[in-house]
Each structure stands twice: as C-alpha cells, then as structure tokens.
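Why does residue order matter? Because the sequence determines the fold. Keep that principle in mind as you read this record.
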Amino acid sequence: MKVNKKQLSIATSIAFILAIKTSNVCAWDNVTVFGDSLSDGGNIGRFTNNADQNLLYDEIISQRLGDNLQPSNNGGRNYAQAGATASQKVNPILNTENQLTSYLQSRGGHADSNSLYVHWVGANDIAAALKNSSQASDMIKNSSDSSVSQVKTLLNAGAGLIIVPNVPQLGMTPYIVQILLNHLDAPSMAAAFQVLNNSTTSDEASRQQTLHEAFHAAAGKMSDIPEKQEVIAQQLFDDWKKLSSQVNGLTDRYNQQQESQLEKLNGNIARMDIAGLFNEVIASPNQYGLSNTIGTACPLVHSADKCHPSDTGGGKERNYLFSDRLHPSSTVHRMMADYFQSVLLAPAQAASLSTSAQLMNTDMHSTLDGHLLQQHSKPADVGKLSLFGGYAGGRFKTNPSVWPNGKSTTTNATVGIGYQLTDSLQSGVIFSNSNQRMGLPSVYGYKFHGSLSGVYSQFSFLQDGWVNADFHYSSIDYDHIQRKIKIGRALRTELGNTKGNQLGIRLQTGWNFPLSERVKTGPVVGYSLDKTYVKGYSEIDNRSTSMHFSDQTYRSQIGSIGWRLESKQFTVNPWAQLTYSHQFGDKETSVRAGLKSTQTSFIRTFKTANKDWVDVAMGLNIPLSNNINAFAGVSTVATKADFHPITWNVGINATF
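Structure:
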C-alpha cells in the first residue's frame, strides 16, 4: 500500500482507503493451491465451460496479484487435481495430503510465507460417503479431520494466510438429478435435462417448478398414460427431495466438523462461506447475472473440461450456475474470485478507521494555531481572557488514474478560552466537534463524528522564543460504515457502526528572527503523540459476506521541522510555513477479521503510509479592532500525491 502523506494533511485516513485498490497486489508474491477439480488448473483438467477461454477463480486471484498460476505438472504452484479427496483412505492416489507432501518436499519442508494459500477439498469425500451410507458418518469425520490436519501442517511449516472455503451443498447440484435418473434410459435422462437446461429459474420456487417439469418430461418417455406420468413424476420429485436432503446433510456435517476443528488451530485462516454464497445466488440469481441454477451450460454427455462453444446439447442462451453436473460455470468462477477478494481486502478497509481521528486533530490545531499565531504578534495583557473560535475542514479528490470519483470531506468547529497568567504565559481550554465523510463511494466509506476536549499553554521566552503545548482527548462515533462488494453483476453493501477514542499531546517550539520591524522569520520544531483506539464491531446483516472486525490500536508519533515567515502591524498580516514531517510511530497496523457465518478469523497487517512528507501552509491575520482579530489559513501536501488534498480554516479571537 504505497500511499504518500500523513497526519498534518487531509491525506491521513485515505492511506488505507487507497489500499483497497493496491493492498492485494502488495501483500503476497504468489498463490499456492491444494484441492480438487474446483481448483485444478490443468493437472488433470480444467473443469469449467469454455475452459480454454476462461480462468478459474484461483487463476483470477493470481492474476490480480500480478502472478501467473500454473499447474504443478508444469512446475507451477497449483497442485489441485480433479477427483482429489481430503483422505487417503478414500482415494490413495488423488488426495490433498499427497499434494501437500509434494509441495513441502520441493521446498525442504518449509512453506513460502509470502504466498497466499488455498486449501479447498471435500466434495469428492462427500460423494464417496453418499455411496457408502453405512460408513458415511465415519468417512465424513475422517475426511474433515484429514483436511484440518493438512491445514495445520501447512501452518506449522510457515504458511501465512490460508484460504479454506467450505463445500457448497451438493444436494443443490444437477449431480443429484443425474444420480436419480441413472437407472432410467437415455431418452428419459435427455428429456429431463433438456427442460433443466432451457428453463429460467429466477428464484427457489421457479427452480422447484423446473424440477417438476423435468421429471414430467422424463416420465413422458416412460409412459403414454397421463395419470401414470403424473405418478412417476411425483415419485421422482419426492425421491429427489429425499436424496438432496441427504446429500446436503452430509455436506453440512463435513463443513461443521471441519469448521470446529479449524477454529481450534487458532491459525491465520480465511474461511470462505461458499455454501452460503451459493444458497444466496440460488435464491436470487438475477441479481448476479444468472438465469439458470439447475441446468448445465455443457451438454449432458460432456464434463466441463471437454465443453466448448461448438458443442450442442447444452444451454447457450442463458447464464448458468453450473457448467456440468458438479462444476461452477466460468461466470461463477469470476464471482467466487470477487467474493474471495472482498473478504481478503476487508481488514484493509476497516483499518482506515484508526487513522481518521488524526484529521480531527489537524482541524482543531488549525484553529488553535491561528489563535496562538495572533498572540505571538499581540499578546493579551496579564489577567485578560481570550475567547476564540474557528471553523476548519478539508476536501480531497483521488487522482482519476488511481480511482475515479474518490472524494472525502471533513468539517470541524473549535472554541477555546485562554487566560493570560503572566506576560509570557497563556493557558486555556479547547473544545472541538468534527464531522467527516470518508471513503471511495463505490468501494468503502463511513461517517465520523468526534468530540474533543483539551488544555493548552503558550509560553514566550527571551522575547523571540516560544513554546506551545496541548493535551487532548476525543470520543469518536463511526457511523454508517459501508463496505461495498461486487460479486458478478451484484453490488452488496454491508453496514456497521462502532466507537473509539483518542488521547494525544503536541509540543511546538520556535524562534523568531526579525527581518524588519514588521516582518520576522524563524524555525519551527514540533512533536506529537496520539494513541487511537477503535472498538471491534460486526456488520449488521447475516449473509455470506457479513464480517466482524477486531479492536484496533494505532499510535501516531510525528516529529516535524519547518520554517515560518510572518508579519504584523499591517492592515492584513500574511504568513507562510513550510514543514517537513517524519513518522516515528506505528508504520503498520493489524486487523483481525472473519465472516460472521464462520468460526475462524484471520489477521492482516498493513503499512500505513510513507514515513516522510512535506506540507505547505499560508494564511492571514486581520486586526478588526484593538481587541478583536480574524485569522484564516490553507494548507496542502507539497509532495506528489495520488490524491489532491486541501485543508483550510477561518476563525476569530477576542481579548477582554
């Protein structure tokens, strides 16, 4: 996440928001995959329609990382094999245990910590258990235990983040229809699938109706008597419901047992709820650009690895959930890649919350500094009160080449009361209220409301020297946190809310060298320390994309040095300042996250920003009377940015 700038400009919190586009590129060097035909990039075959023209989900993720995932048979990192099981007992040759062993042996027993791993297996184990009903329970347990043991081995070998999707409910696939009709003749099977392939299933009800019609078509090949056709069709439908429920039960058992064991590992595991996602897609396919959730894009006689556009017998005019009896279509592979990416990027998006509090300090300090700068030129008399207030804010837009239409705004109202204790010392209190709208509208954003209270002092010494100090505490509400997720044609919005607080101090000192009676210049040195806490939160909905996020703590420690030029005793007194800043505090932050529908979680660590930047600021002090003065200022980041920030402030102070 290579984004410039930090605290003293509006750019602070956008560092993470720009990471939405870039963090996945910088996080891992490559992708390593273990699994079955859902992930096989060519070791056995590529199982999706028009596979020579379309990428699988893992290949899409790899491509987005800037990697080129290749089958292990060609020296690549994709070890997945069609037909593979989790357990060697089910398939001694094709299994993920052998795949993992082969990978680790090639690396001397050590996993690449800079690789993103995928371990997705179980569908073939469930299919085998279905054929051995008396041993199904033991087979499911053995297979789920085997898969978890392999994930543990991978973690122990040094793997960083491992994606472990659950298995979609196999009872919802065309595979169950095919099993049910296998005992019938070929014309009956063909008639049923002709209906399935050429129907539109816009929801679960229309899907059920399509199945009824398919079984009627099959029954029509078995009898010419309408009454008998009805009996056969109803029996087939009842048998389908029973078999589908049985297979879904085995799938659920596998997923649940795998999940409970994965949780005990306490590893960095990104569990993906593909079962939940598929159920949501089946319930409302049109949202995702699909129109058929029970037929196959490929002809019945072809498996997905043999399916090409020139084939006849499959459905071509619709967007299908399935390529063949078991495998997702190429459209769905793209959807799964979108889904995986949304989960992996979510912690980076949430991490922006911990830095946005810095913007409230920036706006508050703009008003406080406007007052103190005026006091440099014309200090209040001993025993006098100074009342001041101001309105500050900022606005920036992202560079269209980086992200179109990215814009954020902050507004802040600050008031303070100071008391002149001696000729050289003023102390007072400050109160500030801040509102922010942060984010990239099409990706991520939130509203920020903060209330700040603090105390400050200004001390002058040796006539030309000065020291400022302030201590502040903020309470924060993060409202309407919006995480927008694109899955195929669908755009979801997950909402959340949370709270936080911040404790901080700032010290500044400087010296004025007179250039004339009315103009002076000199160095400015500063130090600030802020610690921000954001309470963990869960998103409101309970969907396959809904997530929870951990507490966050972020420490900003910034040193700065600059040069100021200011004037006095004019009708309008301009000033200007150039400041170089360096971040000594946290260079990175970590967020733990996970899907609400799963029991595991994973942690991701992100760089916050470049450690050095330069700010340019200028403004005016305007005496309105002997006791009342107005002030205004504007600042921006001088170094090259991927976005264009401008901060500003206006205010007034009065002595009485």
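The two ends are 51 Å apart (CA to CA).
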